[in-house]
Write a structure and sequence with these properties.
By secondary structure, this protein is of the alpha/beta class. It is built from 14 helices and 14 strands. The protein folds into 2 domains: 147 residues, 2-Layer Sandwich (Nucleotidyltransferase, domain 5); 182 residues, ATPase, nucleotide binding domain (Nucleotidyltransferase, domain 5, 2-Layer Sandwich). 37% of the residues lie in helices and 20% in strands. The strands form 2 sheets. An 8-stranded mixed β-sheet has the order 5-4-3-2-1-6-8-7, with helices on both faces. The chain has a 6-stranded mixed β-sheet with strand order 11-10-9-12-14-13, with helices on both faces. A hairpin with a 2-residue loop joins β10 and β11. α7 packs across α8, α10 crosses α11 and α11 crosses α13. The termini are close together. The chain binds adenosine-5'-diphosphate (ADP). Adenosine-5'-diphosphate binds next to α10 and α12.
């Protein structure tokens, strides 16, 4: 059976069509500039068909989906002969609030609940809903499944997710830590458990999803017990353009001093901060590593801050778990930057955790990089959120 996986953003929509009999991608692509023009890049992976990469008018997500379907089924660029060959559709949904602790088959009621979670994910949930509605209209015969970024973290204990602010705000406004990247943390922690070859209930795993957006999770017995992102994906580690955790009083202070609104400060903390803000170079770690190597002191500082804060969270999660059987690196930076992994783990030598310099010289593939005598095993595990979404979709539509 083929499963179409959709990741809809406010002006973009990424897709992958999986053949789930073999768990392989048969086509993938990206619609960009939805609502402000439109561009479609469609790449057939199987069958030797050519790539399509052109501007296409897409006023809304509905036109984006119909263009994707047209390409998937077309004579020239297609990989399937008709819509009937799409057995189900899986959607990445950012915020499931506290209502969803696992993936769910979409019906009108589920759509209402995702809608209720819009205040918690004001940028993403409306876009995710547009993708869902467009697919329901375009492919009415295919069941649709929502896979939430927040779901895996729903097992956190209360003391990890309740913010120490008046409790009534949790009761009235659902104000609490939720956590994100859950699909990735779930996938790589489960892979780590397989590699550890220990009884599941005894396993203590720290997963570091380091990419443009970064978060860390502490996973005990396969269940998430803490994570660095919070009510929104702004909390925790410094990221490409996000500040991560700072003194909340900074927001009013900056607003007063710079004469800008609180909303503008939040936008700055989301879009102009992190390693971009400090380095002044780029949000892309490759550019920053290159600039630091060329002698840019601010690029060096941005990297130092990132490594230092990551180290602090890993250290605190070793405390939370009472030790770590595995520390996992994943996502763009975690999978591809030996320098990042070494800068973090080398500082844990004092508590008996080490990586192997040679083995660490690996990029983009599954690898164990544990150093001799290390108390924790260290893994690089490539994440695959789309495959998890496709698997959940099959499971929920059985
Ligand atoms: P997103 O959060 O957008 O999914 P990714 O997981 O793709 O992000 O991670 C993107 C980040 O990974 C970028 O900052 C990029 O520079 C970094 N990255 C990718 N490859 C490398 C590499 N070889 N060396 C250092 N950083 C890399």
């Amino acid at each position: 059976m083929n499963v179409l996986v959709i990741n809809a953003g406010s002006s973009s929509l990424k897709y992958q069509l999986f053949d789930m009999d073999t768990e392989t991608v048969v086509a993938k692509g990206l619609c960009e500039r939805i609502g402000i023009g439109g561009h479609l890049k469609h790449t057939p992976v199987a069958g030797g068909k050519p790539e399509f990469d052109e501007d296409v008018e897409m006023p809304t997500h509905a036109e984006a989906i119909s263009n994707v379907i047209e390409k998937l089924t077309s004579e020239r660029y297609g990989v399937i002969s008709s819509l009937d060959e799409i057995g189900a559709v899986g959607h990445r949904v950012l915020h499931g609030g506290k209502k969803f602790s696992e993936s769910v088959l979409i019906d009108d009621n589920v759509i209402d609940v995702i809608e209720e979670c819009v205040p918690l994910g004001p940028l993403h949930n409306p876009a995710n809903l547009m993708g869902i509605r467009a697919c329901r209209l375009a492919i009415p015969s295919a069941p649709q499944v929502a896979v939430f970024d927040t779901a895996f973290h729903q097992t956190m204990p209360e003391y990890a997710y309740i913010y120490p602010v008046p409790y009534r705000y949790y009761e009235e406004y659902d104000l609490r830590r939720y956590g994100f990247h859950g699909t990735s943390h779930r996938y790589v922690s489960a892979r780590a458990v397989e590699l550890l070859d220990m009884p599941l209930e005894d396993t203590r795993v720290i997963t570091c999803h380091l990419g443009n957006g970064s978060s860390i999770a502490a996973v005990k017995g396969g269940k998430c017990v803490d994570t660095t992102m919070g009510l929104t994906p702004l909390e925790g580690l410094p990221m490409g353009t996000r500040s991560g955790s700072i003194d909340p009083a900074v927001i009013k202070y900056l607003s007063d001093r710079a004469g800008i609104s609180l909303g503008e400060v939040i936008t700055i903390l989301n879009k102009e901060s992190g390693v971009l803000g400090v380095s002044g170079v780029s949000s892309d770690f490759r550019d920053i590593e290159a600039a630091a190597a060329d002698g840019s002191a601010r690029a060096r500082l941005a990297l130092d801050i990132f490594h230092y804060q990551t180290l602090k969270y890993i250290g605190s999660y070793i405390g939370v778990l009472g030790g770590a059987d595995a520390i996992v690196f994943t996502a763009g930076l975690g999978e591809n930057s030996p320098a990042t992994r070494a800068a973090i783990i080398d500082r844990l030598g004092g508590i008996g955790i080490a990586i192997d310099k040679e083995k660490n010289n690996t990029r983009g593939k599954l690898a164990e990089i544990t150093g001799e005598g290390s108390l924790s095993r260290i893994f690089v595990i490539p994440t695959n959120e789309e495959l998890v979404i496709a698997r959940d979709t099959i499971q929920k539509t059985k």
